[in-house]
Each structure stands twice: as structure tokens, then as C-alpha cells.
Amino acid sequence: MAAVGPSGAAALTLAFVMPSFVLLLLLGFDYDALHKHLLHVYPLPAYGVAALWAGLGFHWLGERFAWGRWSRAAAAAALLAAIAGVGSLWNLRAGYDWTARYVGAVLRSLPPDARLVLVGDTELGPVAYYHLIENWRPDVTLYQSQGLLLGNRLVHPMRIADDQAARDELRGLVERESAPVAFVQSTPEGYAQRHRGLYVLADKSVTDRDAVSVELPDEVRRFLDESLLARDERDPWSRLAQASLRERLGGVSRSGSTPRAAPIRRRRGRCRVSLRTTPARLASPRPARQPARLCRARRSPATWRKHAT
């Protein structure tokens, strides 16, 4: 830091601390995966200062050990290779298919001609892409609960007085549709609920409007066992989606009994992971570490496309 002087060193330190540590102290929340990606632009000045420090440190090493031109070039190439290698672990995702498996489990398990009401971008973006672009389950109709996206708005977000109008319109959707209506989140009150793990069917045919039942279709159960409870994805978005789904399943398990999955079955050198899905396990924030975790029966996006259409 002698190259910039004491005042320059103090300024760089302040520029690093303010948009990082001080920002977290002022906002007062845990810097988890959700908040990290919501506020990832604010620590950018700190990253810039860290990069400047790395350059100054590299220059100091070259002067301290009297590196020649080729030595400095080799050290710089090694540093760039290390940065590229670490970055590739998170950004090279040619084999990533968790989103396709999640959307496939949702769409394939829906009843024919169902209406699916989505809320957040965690499920809206992936489901809408595979439904509208890849043409998975063309008999299904998608809605966004607040009318923010998709052309078939139930309500216009700029023309309603409050959230109650949107809730009333969702109830109207259930009442006027003869086809099943499924909700990923925020199921309207006043209807019996059939929890299917990844979504809830509002059942207006049941007399007891407070009735809650849990039924896991085979496709949903397979997804829960192989892709949600038995493994953690590496990227922050998938981990966030997994945490949200586990939280919802934990709430379902507290409301009633949950069907058990079949035991682990192995065939032809591969295994089909099938964990004992108990209420306590569903409520756990992280999956248990079991040997079955090493068995990853995965399908390619092409296979999911074949079965979802």
C-alpha cells in the first residue's frame, strides 16, 4: 500500500468497508442466498477495491522478488486460470437440469385441462418457459395471480384498489371453471385443499370446505425423493427454490399425515432413490446425508420434454 500512500490506503479501506460490512449492519438481515441475489449490485464497489488491492499486491510481489517480464506473465496467467477455474464451477452448467425436472414434475402431475395459478418468479419463469416455448402440456392454462405477467390477466395490477380484488378474482376463477384449478402458492380460502407436494388443488366439490388431504402423484414423489430431499444443488437459485419447496412441504406435513415413499430399489447398477418421506423429514431444512445421496437417477432435458408433452 506504499504506492498509494496512507491517505489512499485509508480511502480504499473505507470504500471497501462501507458497501459491505457497514451496509449489512445498517440493513440488519442475514446475508443468505435470497438477500445476496436481491442486493448483489450494492457490494460491487467493494469487489472493485478488492481487485485493485490484488493488482497492487501482485505489483509488490514482482518488485519484492525481482520478477522478470516472463515470470510476471506466467504468474498472471496462473492467476487468471485459477479465477476462470473457480468461476466455471458456478457458471458452466451444460449438465444442469434441475429446472426441467421441477417443471416436468409439476406439469406432468397436473390433471387434464388444469388451470395453474403461479405467483413468484421462482416458479413462474421456469414453468412459463417450458409451457409456452417448449410446448409442454399445451392443455394446461397458466395464470399469474396478480396479473403482472402473461397476457390472460385475471386482474389488471393498475386497475384494482387492493389485494382483496385479486383474491376475489381467484375465487371467481375456481367457481366458474369446471376444470381443476391448482395453486403453487396462496390458495384461496373457503375450499377444500388437496396438497400434491408441489401445488395445491382447490376442490369445490367437497362439502367440508376446511378439509385438507395430501396426495403425492408418482411423478411428484419421484421428484421429491430424487431431486429435493436427497440432494442439494450447487447454484444459489436452485438452492433457494429447494429451500422454499421444503418449507412448504414442512407446513403440509404439520397439517396432516404424509404418505410414505417406497423403499430404495436398485437395478442394473443404478439406484432409484426413494427416501422415507416422513413429516419430520419434510420439515427439516436440509436433507439427511445418506448413502443413497450418491445415487443420482437423472433424466436429460430431452427425456423430460418427451414425457411432458
Q: Which structural category do the helix and sheet elements fall into?
A: alpha/beta
One letter per element, helices H and strands E, the order comes to HHHHHEHEHEEEEHHEEHH
The share of residues in extended strands comes to 5-15%
Q: Trace the largest sheet across and list its strands.
A: 2-1-3-5-4-6
- How many structural domains does the protein architecture include? 2
Number of helices: 11
Query: Helix content range of the residues, please?
Result: 40-55%
Mean pLDDT: 77
Distance between the termini: 61 Å
Estimate the global geometry from the Cα principal axes. Answer: elongated
Radius of gyration: 25 Å
Low-confidence segments? 257-301, 303-307
Largest sheet, in brief, is:
6 strands, mixed
Tally of strands: 8
General description of the model:
- The N and C termini lie far apart (61 Å).
- The strands form two sheets. The chain has a six-stranded mixed sheet with strand order 2-1-3-5-4-6, with helices on one face.
- It folds into two domains: 5-91, no CATH class; 98-308, no CATH class.
- α1 packs antiparallel against α3 (44-64) and α5 (98-109) packs across α6 (121-132).
- 50% of the residues lie in helices and 9% in strands.
- It has eleven helices and eight strands.
- By secondary structure, the protein is α/β, with parallel strands linked by helices.
- α6 (121-132) links the parallel β1 and β2 (141-144).
- The radius of gyration is 25 Å and the shape is elongated.
